Structures are given as structure tokens and as C-alpha cells.
Fold this sequence. Notes:
Layout (H helix, E strand, L loop, with lengths): L3 E5 L3 H13 L3 E5 L5 H8 L3 E5 L7 H9 L9 E5 L4 H10 L3 E4 L4 H16 L13
Parallel strand pairs: 1-2, 1-3, 3-4, 4-5
Amino acid sequence: MSRHVVLIEDETNIAEAIRFLLTRDGWSVDVHGNGGDAVEVIRAAGPDLVILDLMLPGKSGLEVIQELRAFDDMQDLPVLMLTARGQLKDREMAERAGVTRFMTKPFSNSEVLTAVRDLHAQAYQDEPALPDQGASS
């Protein structure tokens, strides 16, 4: 099973910390820091999951998620939105736009790892299991 994340985050320290954490957990991580072409980057990468900052240069995370969700093949892609703005109205706007989960900064490493693992498990739980190697047909 693939474990590929596209991380759209313009704060270098946060991006590097998340990249390191997820890579250590066995994920392949592509990091991108601009909202302006984030949709193209995500579509080209074909990830299992996206981590998306709300406030980005070029285009906001809300604009990015709205554009992503307009594509049929991106409707079910799990998206974890990160933001320093944790007010209820921000969370509601993000959920209406199609964000799967919302996390406010600052967050702990374990919170990010748990959220990513949970989103991936929920999204791909319906995939057929591999046949048992010892089973006879």
C-alpha cells in the first residue's frame, strides 16, 4: 500500500518538521510552499493524502481545496488543513470547502502523526485485502 503525502506549507520550519516526522514513519513526502500552483502539484503527484496550510502565498488553502474538490478524481482525497486560525468560523468554512480534518497550530508531532494515520486508514479501509499467501484456491 502506498503512503504518499503532498504537504503544502510555506513556513519552512513547519514543513521540514512534518516532512521529517512523516518520512521517519515510512511516508513519501513532497513539500511545496505556494498556493498558486498547489492544485497542479497535487494532481501531478497523485498522493494518498494532502496536508494543506490555510494561509499560503499565491492562493489560500480554502481556494486550493475548493479547486481540488471540483475534480471528480479528487473528491475523496483526504485533506488535513493546518492553520494558526482556529476559530469556529474558520473550521466551518474549511469543512464546507471539503477539508477532511482541521488542525490548529501549534500542534504536537503525535497529533500530526495520529491525524495522518487515521485519515489514511479511513480513506483506504475499503480496499480489498491482499490474498493470504498460504491460501489454496
